[in-house]
TrEMBL record:
The keyword Amino-acid biosynthesis does not apply. InterPro entries: Thi_PPkinase, Thiamin_PyroPKinase_B1-bd, TPK, TPK_B1-bd_sf, TPK_catalytic, TPK_catalytic_sf. This is Thiamine diphosphokinase. Residues 129-191 form the Thiamin pyrophosphokinase thiamin-binding domain. The lineage of its organism: Bacteria, Pseudomonadati, Spirochaetota, Spirochaetia, Spirochaetales. NCBIfam families: thi_PPkinase (TIGR01378). It is an enzyme of class 2 (transferase). One of its GO terms (molecular function) is thiamine diphosphokinase activity. It comes from the Bacteria. The keyword Kinase applies. One of its GO terms (biological process) is thiamine diphosphate biosynthetic process.
Length: 207
């Protein structure tokens, strides 16, 4: 039995399209994530937030959305995560814009499970819980970052192999590169693997 997956579309810069092979069961749009959902031709099952950033306020009012006050204890993205009832979720958007918004999203992953995938206008971020195999063009940029705790990471197929290197908030693998068509990452704790958005069509083939 496959696990249920929620697609969260949040504010901030997101991709121009999402892979058609991306599998999800329920869609939540938070605030201006509704605008991005319309761009992607995706109809949300739930819209929520304070709606201070959307260009479709009147349309949202007629959609049965959950409205929250602007002065609240949770960001719109956190509200969406709190409403997830599935086993996993995929995050779309949240890129570009203010650095405090980006850091606020990253801070959520200390309190909530991290997304299976996170796709922004510039990034494809893959959560690696233990082992991930990536089929990439040689020379592809790869960065590896911690999620909520340090992790010992091994690799095969990178220019600078990690060999049990500890990835932490003070020491990440930034702009490494693939030297084989198959790259294998193994980690002791969950980490994020970041690929450039230009590889989205290749990422789609790996789904």
């Amino acid at each position: 039995m496959s696990m249920a997956v929620t697609l969260i579309i949040t504010g901030g810069e997101g991709p121009n399209y999402i892979p058609v092979s991306l599998d999800y069961d329920f869609v939540i749009a938070s605030d201006s994530g509704y605008d991005k959902a319309k761009e992607l031709n995706i109809v949300p099952d739930l819209v929520l937030g304070d709606m201070d950033s959307t260009n479709y306020l009147e349309e949202i009012k007629d959609s049965g959305a959950l409205f929250y006050p602007r002065d609240k204890d949770y960001s719109d993205t956190e509200l969406a995560i709190k409403h997830i009832e599935s086993d996993e979720y995929i995050l779309i958007g949240g890129g570009g814009g203010r650095i405090d918004h980006l850091l606020a999203i990253m801070a959520l992953f200390y309190r909530y499970p991290a997304p299976k995938f996170w796709i922004t206008a510039d990034d494809i971020i893959i959560r690696c819980d233990k082992t991930v195999k990536l089929n990439l063009p040689i020379g592809s940029d790869i960065s590896i970052m911690p999620i909520s705790s340090p992790a010992k990471v091994d690799s095969d197929g990178l220019k600078w192999e990690l060999g049990g290197y500890t990835i932490s908030n003070s020491s990440i693998s930034l702009s490494n590169r693939s030297e084989k068509e198959e790259v294998v990452i193994h980690t002791s704790k969950p980490v994020f693997i970041r690929l450039p958005i230009q590889l989205l069509s290749i990422f789609e083939k790996m789904l």
